Amino acid sequence: MAEVIDCEFSVQGDGPPLFLIHGIGAARNTWAKALPILTDHFTVVTYDLRGHGTSPLPEDPFGLDELVADLERVREKTGFECAHFAGHSLGGMIGPAYALKHPNRVNSLGLLSTAAFRTKEDSAKVWGVVHAMEEKGIPQVLETLTARWFTDEFIATHPEVVENRLKQVIRTDPDVFLNVFRIYADTEMASWLQRVTAPSLVLTGEYDGGCNPRLNRLIDQALPNSELLILPKLKHSILLEAGDRVAEHLCRFVAANSVE
Predict the structure, then answer these.
(1) Helix (H, G, I), strand (E, B) or coil at 7
(2) On the CB side of 205, how many CA atoms lie within 13 Å of its CA?
(3) Residue 72 CB: number of other CB atoms within 10 A?
(4) Are strands 9-13 and 43-47 parallel, antiparallel or unpaired?
(5) How far is CA 179 from CA 36, 131, 230, in A?
(6) Span 204-233, average pLDDT
(7) Using one digit for the tens of pLDDT, what is the confidence trace for 28-46?
(8) Strands of 43-47's sheet, edge to edge?
(9) Is there a contact between 163 and 249 (Cβ–Cβ < 8 Å)?
């Protein structure tokens, strides 16, 4: 296992602690639309994954275990003994993997726009994107992902948000970006999700291609204590398009399942 990296993090708001875990080629600012609501209810900890945002670059390739260890280091540094956790996309895999390793630290989970129980065809599609980026370069393939991430209406009405998201990916170190994309493609939670006992909100967009309702229904069925929510019309970038709605659902779910 590679060394743990001290990731950069921010703490804001008041209330029970909530850790937010972003996805591939993003950073803690991906939660900006959700934060005004969340910080009214929680002490929110956002952080940049290793090699993302302002966090240090790793020297070696890494896997899901290292990302879990980085999250535990952030928790240690904040001093919170236990907390609520929510993650988007790859973050929705890091959160449950963290809960599996540190069950006593986790009061609840949010699995947002993530995937498990992929068929061979599902996996082939994800790996196809990875291999295309390896062969052609990340910027050359990135434009094709825009329509997978955002609805047509949002692309038309918020072109600057879409453009900034693409620039954020391109600014991410390409080795790190491909490393985390491979983790996302390679991780299969199906064999261990049933051992994650924390109350879990499973949430995705109706038209999310790679993290679609079909897969999320299977995630919900596998988890012992979960609620499934499908957000109408949305695709993958639910935080940028509807972060306020996601935040409201997180607040409601945690309040209904709080151990405080």
Answers:
(1) coil
(2) 23
(3) 14
(4) antiparallel
(5) 32, 12, 29
(6) 97
(7) 999 999 999 999 999 999 9
(8) 9-13, 43-47, 17-21, 83-88, 106-112, 200-205, 226-231
(9) no
CB atoms under 10 Å from CB of 114, counted, come to 29
At 257, is the pLDDT very low, low, confident or very high (cuts 50, 70, 90)? confident
Max CA pair span of the chain? 50
Q: How many helices (H) and strands (E) does the chain have?
A: 10, 7
**pTM over the 0.70 mark:** yes
User: Where do we find the tokens 């979960």?
Assistant: 226
d(CA 113, CA 219): 11
Instruction: Name the token pair of 1.
Output: 């296992």
As given in the structure block, the two tokens for residue 215 are 């897969």
Quickly tell me which residue has 């590679």 as its tokens.
2
Report which secondary-structure segment, H or E, holds 69. Answer: helix 64-78
Tokens standing for residue 259: 């151990």
Contact 30, 23 (CB under 8 A): yes
pLDDT over 60 at 148, yes or no:
yes
- pLDDT at residue 260 above 80? no
**3-state secondary structure string across 13-40:** ECCCEEEEECCCCCCHHHHCCCHHHHCC
